[in-house]
Amino acid sequence: MSINNLVAARFGLPTDIGKSVEGNTTIENILSHRSHRAFKNETVPGDLLDTLFAAAFSAPSKSDLQQACVVHVQDPEKQKRIAHATATIRWAADAPVFLVWCGDSRRIRKLAKWRGHEFANDHLDAFMNAAVDAGICMQNFITAAESFGLGCCPVSEVRNHIELLSRELDLPQHVFPVAGLAVGWPLQESRISMRLPMAITVHTDRYNDDNLVEEVERYDYRREDIEQTPPDEQRYVEDLGVSTSYGWSENRTRQYSRPARNDFGRYIRSQGFNLA
């Protein structure tokens, strides 16, 4: 597909974007991204995996502080315990490769002590910098993996049972999980997830969401035509009822109408972070 066609498929709208852009394998792979949760029973060669790690840690890093790390979970029983802790990610127990990307503020703190310098940035920004570094590294890994035909799916649900995960990975102070990542050769091609229109995600000179509701309502209908969520798959029907227009906004606002991971802040503080 041309870049223009890929953009149109991603956003579900006719567009002129990409019509004058020459073919480019990297951008085509990015625009074709889709999550995969079912994999062939085939291993990922070790040298390929190491190459993908090298690509991941080639990512930009705040002030070259390099505050990210990854735990490759190779013990199948450990992987199973992590995946089975949350019903919605039991499928991750069968992923040929399972990774947990972590923010790592421990490294620079240990080095500061070694060098005899005070660590004078013990506040919320230290947590944010490490979390962002980990997220960028994970995305670099995904982009590189997909260029070889591998499928990936980030798994934030690993944080649902944060204490269990932290124990399984033996995470020390100032290291915390950001997301899991399941990796393998896709069993079948999954669908592309339509994204919000850039009319509400790309701003010029100032933030402006004046047309948010109108744009999202149209987006809901575009996705509804594709996804057709039946009543038995809608969230919290027993309390919120069945919606006749169950689009993206109804689904996601229902999701956030219930508390989740409300112990994460306590966990991060217990890992030694000052969030002031």
Give the helix tally: 12
Strand content: 5-15%
Helix content: 40-55%
Distance between the termini: 49 Å
**What kind of sheet is the major sheet?**
4 strands, antiparallel
Average pLDDT reading: 96
The CATH H-level superfamily of the largest domain is: NADH Oxidase
| Helix-strand string | HHHEHEHHEHEHHHHH
Description:
With 276 residues, the protein is of the alpha+beta class. The chain has three domains: 1-32, no CATH class; 35-191, NADH Oxidase (3-Layer(aba) Sandwich); 198-255, no CATH class. It has helices spanning 3-11, 25-31, 46-56, 76-84, 106-115, 124-147, 162-169, 198-201, 212-227, 237-240, 248-255, 264-270, and strands spanning 68-72, 97-104, 151-155, 175-184. The mean pLDDT is 96.
Task: Give me a quick take on this structure.
The protein has helices at residues 3-11, 25-31, 46-56, 76-84, 106-115, 124-147, 162-169, 198-201, 212-227, 237-240, 248-255, 264-270; strands spanning 68-72, 97-104, 151-155, 175-184. With 276 residues, it is an alpha+beta fold. The chain folds into three domains: 1-32, no CATH class; 35-191, NADH Oxidase, CATH 3.40.109; 198-255, no CATH class.
